[in-house]
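Suppose you are handed a protein chain with no further information: no name, no annotation, nothing but its sequence. What can you learn? This example shows the usual starting point.
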Amino acid sequence: MRTTEQIPAQEPARQFHYMEVARDLVQKKAEEAGRPLSFFVQTFGCQMNARDSEKLRGILQHIGFVPGEDETADFVLYNTCTVRENANQKVYGRLGYLQTLKRKNPSMFIALCGCMMQEPEVLQTLRDKYTFVDLVFGTHNIFKLAELIVRALEQHEMLIDVWKDTDMIVEDLPVDRKYSFKSGVNIMFGCNNFCSYCIVPYVRGRERSRNPRDIIREIESLISEGVREVMLLGQNVNSYGKNLDPQVTFAELLETIAGIDGLDRIRFMTSHPKDLSEDLIRVMAEHPKICRHLHLPLQSGSTEILRRMNRRYTKEQYLELVDRIRAAVPDISLTTDIIVGFPGETEADFQETLDVVRRVRYDSAFTFIYSKRTGTPAAVMENQVPDEVIKDRFGRLLAEVQEIGREQTARFTGQTMPVLVEQQNEQDPALVTGRLDTNAVVHFPGDPSLIGQIVDVYLAECRGFYYLGEMRNQELPSS
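A reasonable first move is to predict its three-dimensional structure. Written in C-alpha coordinates, the prediction is:
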Protein backbone atom coordinates (compact mmCIF):
# COMPACT_ATOMS: atom_id res chain seq x y z
CA MET A 1 0.00 0.00 0.00
CA ARG A 2 1.14 3.51 -0.78
CA THR A 3 -1.33 5.62 1.17
CA THR A 4 1.42 6.70 3.60
CA GLU A 5 3.45 8.30 0.83
CA GLN A 6 3.30 12.04 0.40
CA ILE A 7 0.31 12.76 -1.85
CA PRO A 8 0.92 15.31 -4.65
CA ALA A 9 -1.19 18.44 -4.34
CA GLN A 10 -1.33 19.24 -8.05
CA GLU A 11 -3.44 17.53 -10.70
CA PRO A 12 -3.10 15.26 -12.55
CA ALA A 13 -0.07 14.04 -10.52
CA ARG A 14 -2.36 13.51 -7.53
CA GLN A 15 -4.59 11.18 -9.57
CA PHE A 16 -1.66 9.15 -10.90
CA HIS A 17 -0.62 8.62 -7.28
CA TYR A 18 -4.08 7.33 -6.41
CA MET A 19 -4.13 5.14 -9.51
CA GLU A 20 -1.10 3.30 -8.13
CA VAL A 21 -2.78 2.96 -4.73
CA ALA A 22 -5.98 1.71 -6.39
CA ARG A 23 -3.98 -0.72 -8.53
CA ASP A 24 -2.60 -2.34 -5.37
CA LEU A 25 -6.12 -2.66 -3.91
CA VAL A 26 -7.55 -4.12 -7.13
CA GLN A 27 -4.65 -6.57 -7.45
CA LYS A 28 -5.18 -7.75 -3.87
CA LYS A 29 -8.90 -8.32 -4.48
CA ALA A 30 -8.16 -10.11 -7.76
CA GLU A 31 -5.77 -12.45 -5.94
CA GLU A 32 -8.45 -13.17 -3.35
CA ALA A 33 -10.95 -13.92 -6.11
CA GLY A 34 -8.46 -15.99 -8.07
CA ARG A 35 -9.18 -14.11 -11.30
CA PRO A 36 -8.97 -10.62 -12.82
CA LEU A 37 -11.73 -8.25 -11.72
CA SER A 38 -14.03 -6.98 -14.47
CA PHE A 39 -15.78 -3.64 -14.99
CA PHE A 40 -18.78 -2.44 -16.97
CA VAL A 41 -19.58 1.22 -17.76
CA GLN A 42 -23.09 2.06 -18.98
CA THR A 43 -23.43 5.50 -20.58
CA PHE A 44 -26.70 7.44 -20.69
CA GLY A 45 -27.08 10.72 -22.58
CA CYS A 46 -25.06 12.93 -24.88
CA GLN A 47 -21.67 12.86 -26.57
CA MET A 48 -20.17 14.75 -23.64
CA ASN A 49 -21.17 11.81 -21.43
CA ALA A 50 -19.78 9.36 -23.97
CA ARG A 51 -16.44 11.17 -23.91
CA ASP A 52 -16.49 11.20 -20.08
CA SER A 53 -17.05 7.43 -20.14
CA GLU A 54 -13.97 6.94 -22.31
CA LYS A 55 -11.97 8.63 -19.56
CA LEU A 56 -13.63 6.57 -16.83
CA ARG A 57 -12.93 3.32 -18.69
CA GLY A 58 -9.34 4.40 -19.24
CA ILE A 59 -8.79 4.92 -15.52
CA LEU A 60 -10.45 1.62 -14.60
CA GLN A 61 -8.23 -0.31 -17.00
CA HIS A 62 -5.17 1.56 -15.77
CA ILE A 63 -5.80 0.44 -12.18
CA GLY A 64 -6.17 -3.20 -13.16
CA PHE A 65 -9.79 -3.90 -14.06
CA VAL A 66 -10.52 -5.75 -17.31
CA PRO A 67 -13.55 -5.00 -19.53
CA GLY A 68 -16.66 -7.05 -18.79
CA GLU A 69 -19.65 -7.78 -21.00
CA ASP A 70 -22.54 -6.64 -18.83
CA GLU A 71 -23.73 -5.71 -15.35
CA THR A 72 -22.61 -9.00 -13.85
CA ALA A 73 -19.12 -7.42 -13.69
CA ASP A 74 -17.29 -6.84 -10.40
CA PHE A 75 -17.37 -3.05 -10.85
CA VAL A 76 -20.44 -1.43 -12.45
CA LEU A 77 -20.57 2.29 -13.18
CA TYR A 78 -23.57 4.17 -14.56
CA ASN A 79 -22.70 7.53 -16.17
CA THR A 80 -26.10 9.18 -16.00
CA CYS A 81 -28.12 11.76 -17.92
CA THR A 82 -30.85 13.98 -16.50
CA VAL A 83 -32.04 16.03 -19.47
CA ARG A 84 -35.45 14.36 -19.10
CA GLU A 85 -36.99 12.99 -15.95
CA ASN A 86 -37.66 9.60 -17.56
CA ALA A 87 -33.87 9.27 -17.83
CA ASN A 88 -33.77 9.33 -14.02
CA GLN A 89 -36.48 6.68 -13.80
CA LYS A 90 -34.52 4.46 -16.17
CA VAL A 91 -31.50 4.60 -13.85
CA TYR A 92 -33.60 3.84 -10.77
CA GLY A 93 -35.02 0.83 -12.60
CA ARG A 94 -31.54 -0.46 -13.44
CA LEU A 95 -30.46 0.02 -9.84
CA GLY A 96 -33.19 -2.39 -8.75
CA TYR A 97 -31.61 -4.99 -11.03
CA LEU A 98 -28.14 -4.24 -9.64
CA GLN A 99 -29.40 -4.75 -6.09
CA THR A 100 -30.45 -8.28 -7.05
CA LEU A 101 -26.99 -8.94 -8.50
CA LYS A 102 -25.25 -7.55 -5.44
CA ARG A 103 -27.18 -9.86 -3.14
CA LYS A 104 -25.63 -12.75 -5.08
CA ASN A 105 -22.18 -11.11 -5.15
CA PRO A 106 -21.72 -8.92 -2.03
CA SER A 107 -18.22 -7.84 -3.12
CA MET A 108 -19.64 -6.20 -6.25
CA PHE A 109 -18.82 -2.47 -6.41
CA ILE A 110 -21.53 -0.11 -7.74
CA ALA A 111 -20.80 3.51 -8.72
CA LEU A 112 -22.96 6.31 -10.11
CA CYS A 113 -21.80 9.53 -11.74
CA GLY A 114 -22.89 12.14 -14.27
CA CYS A 115 -25.57 14.80 -14.55
CA MET A 116 -28.29 13.05 -12.55
CA MET A 117 -26.01 13.01 -9.51
CA GLN A 118 -25.87 16.84 -9.47
CA GLU A 119 -29.48 16.99 -8.25
CA PRO A 120 -29.83 17.20 -4.44
CA GLU A 121 -33.14 15.29 -4.46
CA VAL A 122 -31.45 12.42 -6.31
CA LEU A 123 -28.71 12.23 -3.69
CA GLN A 124 -31.33 12.10 -0.94
CA THR A 125 -33.19 9.31 -2.75
CA LEU A 126 -29.96 7.32 -3.04
CA ARG A 127 -29.24 7.78 0.67
CA ASP A 128 -32.76 6.67 1.61
CA LYS A 129 -33.51 3.84 -0.82
CA TYR A 130 -30.32 2.68 -2.52
CA THR A 131 -27.86 2.23 0.32
CA PHE A 132 -26.14 -0.67 -1.51
CA VAL A 133 -24.51 1.84 -3.90
CA ASP A 134 -20.82 2.26 -3.02
CA LEU A 135 -19.81 5.48 -4.77
CA VAL A 136 -21.60 8.58 -6.08
CA PHE A 137 -19.94 11.51 -7.85
CA GLY A 138 -20.99 14.15 -10.35
CA THR A 139 -19.94 15.82 -13.57
CA HIS A 140 -17.16 18.06 -12.26
CA ASN A 141 -14.82 15.52 -10.67
CA ILE A 142 -14.80 12.45 -12.91
CA PHE A 143 -11.01 12.82 -13.08
CA LYS A 144 -10.95 11.79 -9.39
CA LEU A 145 -12.28 8.28 -10.03
CA ALA A 146 -9.19 6.44 -8.75
CA GLU A 147 -9.00 8.59 -5.61
CA LEU A 148 -12.71 8.09 -4.94
CA ILE A 149 -12.44 4.33 -5.38
CA VAL A 150 -9.63 4.23 -2.80
CA ARG A 151 -11.65 6.29 -0.33
CA ALA A 152 -14.80 4.20 -0.87
CA LEU A 153 -12.95 0.91 -0.37
CA GLU A 154 -11.35 2.22 2.81
CA GLN A 155 -14.54 3.51 4.46
CA HIS A 156 -16.82 0.55 3.54
CA GLU A 157 -19.96 2.67 3.15
CA MET A 158 -21.57 4.83 0.48
CA LEU A 159 -19.24 7.67 -0.49
CA ILE A 160 -20.85 10.76 -2.03
CA ASP A 161 -18.55 13.36 -3.55
CA VAL A 162 -20.53 15.82 -5.68
CA TRP A 163 -19.29 19.34 -6.44
CA LYS A 164 -21.80 22.10 -7.07
CA ASP A 165 -19.48 23.80 -9.57
CA THR A 166 -15.81 24.10 -10.45
CA ASP A 167 -13.32 26.09 -12.48
CA MET A 168 -10.97 23.10 -12.69
CA ILE A 169 -10.17 21.34 -15.96
CA VAL A 170 -8.07 18.19 -15.53
CA GLU A 171 -7.05 16.25 -18.62
CA ASP A 172 -4.04 14.06 -19.57
CA LEU A 173 -5.43 11.01 -17.80
CA PRO A 174 -5.82 7.50 -19.30
CA VAL A 175 -8.55 7.21 -21.97
CA ASP A 176 -10.13 4.14 -23.53
CA ARG A 177 -11.39 5.34 -26.90
CA LYS A 178 -14.13 3.45 -28.74
CA TYR A 179 -12.36 4.03 -32.07
CA SER A 180 -8.61 4.12 -32.74
CA PHE A 181 -9.01 6.45 -35.74
CA LYS A 182 -11.38 9.10 -34.40
CA SER A 183 -11.87 10.80 -31.07
CA GLY A 184 -13.86 13.40 -29.22
CA VAL A 185 -11.92 16.34 -27.80
CA ASN A 186 -13.43 18.49 -25.07
CA ILE A 187 -12.79 22.15 -25.78
CA MET A 188 -15.10 23.57 -23.11
CA PHE A 189 -17.43 22.54 -20.33
CA GLY A 190 -20.68 23.91 -18.93
CA CYS A 191 -23.33 26.24 -20.33
CA ASN A 192 -24.42 29.83 -19.67
CA ASN A 193 -27.54 29.90 -21.84
CA PHE A 194 -30.30 28.85 -19.41
CA CYS A 195 -32.87 27.84 -21.99
CA SER A 196 -36.07 27.66 -19.97
CA TYR A 197 -36.66 23.94 -20.62
CA CYS A 198 -33.09 22.77 -19.95
CA ILE A 199 -31.44 21.46 -16.78
CA VAL A 200 -27.90 21.36 -18.25
CA PRO A 201 -26.57 24.68 -16.85
CA TYR A 202 -27.63 23.57 -13.38
CA VAL A 203 -25.84 20.20 -13.57
CA ARG A 204 -22.88 20.98 -15.85
CA GLY A 205 -22.08 24.39 -14.35
CA ARG A 206 -20.94 27.63 -15.96
CA GLU A 207 -18.95 27.77 -19.17
CA ARG A 208 -15.22 27.24 -18.87
CA SER A 209 -12.93 26.85 -21.87
CA ARG A 210 -9.73 24.86 -22.12
CA ASN A 211 -6.51 26.60 -23.01
CA PRO A 212 -6.07 26.38 -26.80
CA ARG A 213 -2.46 25.15 -26.38
CA ASP A 214 -3.71 22.17 -24.37
CA ILE A 215 -6.32 21.38 -27.03
CA ILE A 216 -3.74 21.53 -29.83
CA ARG A 217 -1.32 19.37 -27.83
CA GLU A 218 -4.03 16.76 -27.24
CA ILE A 219 -4.97 16.67 -30.94
CA GLU A 220 -1.34 16.33 -31.98
CA SER A 221 -0.97 13.44 -29.54
CA LEU A 222 -4.09 11.78 -30.94
CA ILE A 223 -2.73 12.12 -34.48
CA SER A 224 0.49 10.40 -33.39
CA GLU A 225 -1.71 7.50 -32.20
CA GLY A 226 -3.43 7.17 -35.57
CA VAL A 227 -6.48 9.42 -35.14
CA ARG A 228 -7.71 10.92 -38.41
CA GLU A 229 -10.92 12.65 -37.28
CA VAL A 230 -11.70 14.68 -34.19
CA MET A 231 -15.03 15.88 -32.82
CA LEU A 232 -14.67 19.13 -30.85
CA LEU A 233 -17.13 18.95 -27.97
CA GLY A 234 -18.91 21.55 -25.87
CA GLN A 235 -22.45 22.38 -24.80
CA ASN A 236 -22.12 25.47 -27.00
CA VAL A 237 -18.84 25.51 -28.90
CA ASN A 238 -19.67 28.87 -30.48
CA SER A 239 -19.11 30.61 -27.16
CA TYR A 240 -15.68 29.01 -26.70
CA GLY A 241 -12.98 31.26 -25.30
CA LYS A 242 -15.06 33.97 -23.65
CA ASN A 243 -13.58 33.23 -20.22
CA LEU A 244 -9.98 33.02 -21.46
CA ASP A 245 -7.45 35.82 -21.07
CA PRO A 246 -6.67 36.77 -23.75
CA GLN A 247 -9.91 35.73 -25.40
CA VAL A 248 -9.79 33.26 -28.28
CA THR A 249 -12.84 32.76 -30.50
CA PHE A 250 -14.06 29.39 -31.67
CA ALA A 251 -13.39 30.45 -35.27
CA GLU A 252 -9.76 31.18 -34.38
CA LEU A 253 -9.38 27.85 -32.57
CA LEU A 254 -10.97 25.96 -35.47
CA GLU A 255 -8.70 27.64 -38.01
CA THR A 256 -5.63 26.69 -35.97
CA ILE A 257 -6.79 23.07 -35.69
CA ALA A 258 -7.45 22.97 -39.45
CA GLY A 259 -3.77 23.76 -39.96
CA ILE A 260 -2.50 20.73 -38.04
CA ASP A 261 -0.69 18.25 -40.28
CA GLY A 262 -1.95 14.68 -40.27
CA LEU A 263 -5.55 15.48 -39.37
CA ASP A 264 -8.08 14.64 -42.08
CA ARG A 265 -11.47 15.58 -40.65
CA ILE A 266 -12.81 18.00 -38.05
CA ARG A 267 -16.33 17.95 -36.64
CA PHE A 268 -17.85 19.94 -33.80
CA MET A 269 -21.02 20.22 -31.77
CA THR A 270 -23.16 21.75 -30.48
CA SER A 271 -23.61 25.16 -32.13
CA HIS A 272 -26.08 27.62 -30.63
CA PRO A 273 -27.50 29.80 -33.45
CA LYS A 274 -27.23 33.00 -31.43
CA ASP A 275 -23.42 32.74 -31.26
CA LEU A 276 -22.57 31.46 -34.75
CA SER A 277 -20.29 34.14 -36.19
CA GLU A 278 -19.47 35.24 -39.71
CA ASP A 279 -15.85 34.34 -38.99
CA LEU A 280 -16.90 30.77 -38.22
CA ILE A 281 -18.82 30.52 -41.49
CA ARG A 282 -15.77 31.82 -43.34
CA VAL A 283 -13.44 29.29 -41.68
CA MET A 284 -15.83 26.45 -42.48
CA ALA A 285 -15.94 27.51 -46.12
CA GLU A 286 -12.17 27.92 -46.48
CA HIS A 287 -10.91 24.71 -44.90
CA PRO A 288 -11.76 21.36 -46.55
CA LYS A 289 -10.79 19.44 -43.39
CA ILE A 290 -13.86 20.85 -41.67
CA CYS A 291 -16.72 18.45 -42.37
CA ARG A 292 -19.70 19.73 -44.30
CA HIS A 293 -22.09 18.97 -41.48
CA LEU A 294 -23.51 21.42 -38.99
CA HIS A 295 -25.89 20.58 -36.16
CA LEU A 296 -27.89 23.78 -35.63
CA PRO A 297 -30.67 23.31 -33.05
CA LEU A 298 -33.89 25.13 -33.93
CA GLN A 299 -36.14 23.93 -31.07
CA SER A 300 -39.12 25.90 -32.46
CA GLY A 301 -39.95 27.89 -35.57
CA SER A 302 -42.16 30.31 -33.65
CA THR A 303 -40.50 33.53 -32.54
CA GLU A 304 -42.88 33.73 -29.58
CA ILE A 305 -42.08 30.20 -28.42
CA LEU A 306 -38.36 30.88 -28.93
CA ARG A 307 -38.76 33.89 -26.63
CA ARG A 308 -40.45 31.72 -23.99
CA MET A 309 -37.64 29.19 -24.41
CA ASN A 310 -35.04 31.96 -23.85
CA ARG A 311 -33.28 31.01 -27.09
CA ARG A 312 -32.41 34.65 -27.94
CA TYR A 313 -32.98 34.55 -31.69
CA THR A 314 -36.06 34.88 -33.89
CA LYS A 315 -37.38 32.69 -36.68
CA GLU A 316 -36.20 35.28 -39.20
CA GLN A 317 -32.71 35.47 -37.71
CA TYR A 318 -32.40 31.67 -37.81
CA LEU A 319 -33.46 31.52 -41.47
CA GLU A 320 -31.08 34.34 -42.41
CA LEU A 321 -28.25 32.48 -40.67
CA VAL A 322 -29.06 29.31 -42.64
CA ASP A 323 -29.01 31.32 -45.88
CA ARG A 324 -25.54 32.71 -45.06
CA ILE A 325 -24.21 29.26 -44.17
CA ARG A 326 -25.57 27.70 -47.36
CA ALA A 327 -24.21 30.54 -49.50
CA ALA A 328 -20.72 29.88 -48.10
CA VAL A 329 -20.91 26.05 -47.95
CA PRO A 330 -23.48 24.99 -50.58
CA ASP A 331 -23.35 21.21 -50.00
CA ILE A 332 -23.52 21.41 -46.22
CA SER A 333 -25.67 18.92 -44.35
CA LEU A 334 -27.81 20.65 -41.73
CA THR A 335 -29.31 18.74 -38.81
CA THR A 336 -31.30 20.06 -35.89
CA ASP A 337 -33.25 19.52 -32.67
CA ILE A 338 -36.96 20.37 -32.42
CA ILE A 339 -39.26 20.32 -29.39
CA VAL A 340 -42.99 19.84 -29.93
CA GLY A 341 -45.60 20.95 -27.41
CA PHE A 342 -43.67 23.55 -25.42
CA PRO A 343 -45.96 25.37 -22.96
CA GLY A 344 -48.15 27.87 -24.78
CA GLU A 345 -47.50 26.41 -28.24
CA THR A 346 -50.54 26.96 -30.47
CA GLU A 347 -51.33 25.33 -33.79
CA ALA A 348 -50.14 28.56 -35.44
CA ASP A 349 -46.82 28.28 -33.59
CA PHE A 350 -46.48 24.67 -34.71
CA GLN A 351 -47.14 25.68 -38.32
CA GLU A 352 -44.23 28.13 -38.01
CA THR A 353 -42.02 25.17 -37.06
CA LEU A 354 -43.22 23.20 -40.07
CA ASP A 355 -42.51 26.25 -42.25
CA VAL A 356 -38.88 26.36 -41.08
CA VAL A 357 -38.49 22.60 -41.66
CA ARG A 358 -39.77 22.99 -45.23
CA ARG A 359 -37.59 26.02 -45.96
CA VAL A 360 -34.34 24.75 -44.40
CA ARG A 361 -34.75 21.14 -45.56
CA TYR A 362 -32.74 19.37 -42.87
CA ASP A 363 -30.90 16.14 -43.64
CA SER A 364 -32.23 14.83 -40.35
CA ALA A 365 -33.75 16.14 -37.14
CA PHE A 366 -33.91 14.93 -33.56
CA THR A 367 -37.55 15.53 -32.63
CA PHE A 368 -38.70 15.54 -29.02
CA ILE A 369 -42.04 15.67 -27.27
CA TYR A 370 -41.81 18.33 -24.57
CA SER A 371 -41.87 16.91 -21.08
CA LYS A 372 -41.72 18.87 -17.86
CA ARG A 373 -38.25 18.95 -16.33
CA THR A 374 -38.47 19.71 -12.61
CA GLY A 375 -36.12 22.55 -11.70
CA THR A 376 -36.54 24.47 -14.97
CA PRO A 377 -38.67 27.60 -15.53
CA ALA A 378 -40.71 25.88 -18.25
CA ALA A 379 -41.98 23.24 -15.82
CA VAL A 380 -44.13 25.81 -14.00
CA MET A 381 -45.28 27.80 -17.05
CA GLU A 382 -48.99 28.15 -17.71
CA ASN A 383 -50.75 26.74 -20.79
CA GLN A 384 -49.16 23.31 -20.76
CA VAL A 385 -50.22 21.61 -24.02
CA PRO A 386 -52.48 18.52 -23.71
CA ASP A 387 -50.77 15.20 -24.44
CA GLU A 388 -53.10 14.24 -27.28
CA VAL A 389 -52.39 17.55 -29.06
CA ILE A 390 -48.63 17.10 -28.64
CA LYS A 391 -48.73 13.56 -30.00
CA ASP A 392 -50.71 14.66 -33.06
CA ARG A 393 -48.25 17.47 -33.80
CA PHE A 394 -45.28 15.21 -33.20
CA GLY A 395 -46.57 12.70 -35.72
CA ARG A 396 -47.08 15.38 -38.37
CA LEU A 397 -43.63 16.85 -37.74
CA LEU A 398 -41.94 13.45 -37.89
CA ALA A 399 -43.58 12.65 -41.23
CA GLU A 400 -42.40 15.98 -42.68
CA VAL A 401 -38.87 15.65 -41.34
CA GLN A 402 -38.46 12.08 -42.60
CA GLU A 403 -39.77 12.80 -46.10
CA ILE A 404 -37.48 15.82 -46.53
CA GLY A 405 -34.58 13.99 -44.90
CA ARG A 406 -34.80 11.11 -47.36
CA GLU A 407 -34.78 13.55 -50.28
CA GLN A 408 -31.84 15.50 -48.86
CA THR A 409 -29.77 12.43 -48.08
CA ALA A 410 -30.23 11.11 -51.63
CA ARG A 411 -28.82 14.22 -53.32
CA PHE A 412 -25.33 12.72 -53.70
CA THR A 413 -26.50 9.55 -55.47
CA GLY A 414 -24.27 8.78 -58.44
CA GLN A 415 -21.27 10.68 -57.07
CA THR A 416 -17.97 9.29 -55.82
CA MET A 417 -17.08 10.69 -52.38
CA PRO A 418 -14.55 10.00 -49.60
CA VAL A 419 -15.80 7.71 -46.83
CA LEU A 420 -14.12 7.15 -43.46
CA VAL A 421 -14.61 3.43 -42.79
CA GLU A 422 -15.72 2.92 -39.18
CA GLN A 423 -16.61 -0.74 -38.73
CA GLN A 424 -17.57 -4.04 -40.24
CA ASN A 425 -21.26 -4.00 -41.10
CA GLU A 426 -23.33 -5.39 -38.24
CA GLN A 427 -25.80 -7.25 -40.50
CA ASP A 428 -23.53 -8.40 -43.33
CA PRO A 429 -19.85 -9.21 -42.62
CA ALA A 430 -19.08 -8.87 -46.35
CA LEU A 431 -19.77 -5.12 -46.03
CA VAL A 432 -18.09 -2.29 -44.15
CA THR A 433 -19.79 0.86 -42.85
CA GLY A 434 -18.49 4.41 -42.89
CA ARG A 435 -19.51 8.05 -43.15
CA LEU A 436 -19.29 10.86 -45.62
CA ASP A 437 -18.07 14.16 -44.25
CA THR A 438 -21.76 15.21 -44.36
CA ASN A 439 -22.29 12.46 -41.73
CA ALA A 440 -24.39 10.26 -44.04
CA VAL A 441 -23.84 6.53 -43.53
CA VAL A 442 -22.50 4.38 -46.39
CA HIS A 443 -22.38 0.56 -46.60
CA PHE A 444 -20.20 -1.08 -49.26
CA PRO A 445 -18.31 -4.34 -49.93
CA GLY A 446 -14.99 -4.48 -48.09
CA ASP A 447 -13.02 -6.24 -45.39
CA PRO A 448 -11.99 -5.13 -41.88
CA SER A 449 -8.54 -4.01 -43.14
CA LEU A 450 -10.29 -0.87 -44.44
CA ILE A 451 -11.42 0.23 -40.97
CA GLY A 452 -9.89 3.61 -40.14
CA GLN A 453 -9.10 4.37 -43.79
CA ILE A 454 -10.61 7.08 -45.99
CA VAL A 455 -11.54 5.59 -49.35
CA ASP A 456 -13.43 6.81 -52.42
CA VAL A 457 -16.85 5.20 -52.73
CA TYR A 458 -19.32 5.43 -55.59
CA LEU A 459 -22.75 6.11 -54.07
CA ALA A 460 -24.84 3.77 -56.17
CA GLU A 461 -28.14 3.81 -54.28
CA CYS A 462 -29.73 5.73 -51.43
CA ARG A 463 -32.08 3.81 -49.20
CA GLY A 464 -33.76 6.34 -47.00
CA PHE A 465 -31.02 7.60 -44.70
CA TYR A 466 -28.04 5.56 -45.89
CA TYR A 467 -26.22 4.68 -49.10
CA LEU A 468 -25.14 1.45 -50.71
CA GLY A 469 -21.91 1.97 -52.61
CA GLU A 470 -18.87 0.50 -54.32
CA MET A 471 -15.27 1.37 -53.56
CA ARG A 472 -13.59 3.10 -56.51
CA ASN A 473 -10.29 4.68 -57.47
CA GLN A 474 -9.89 8.45 -57.63
CA GLU A 475 -11.53 8.70 -61.04
CA LEU A 476 -15.28 9.23 -61.25
CA PRO A 477 -17.14 6.24 -62.72
CA SER A 478 -18.06 6.45 -66.39
CA SER A 479 -21.72 7.01 -67.09
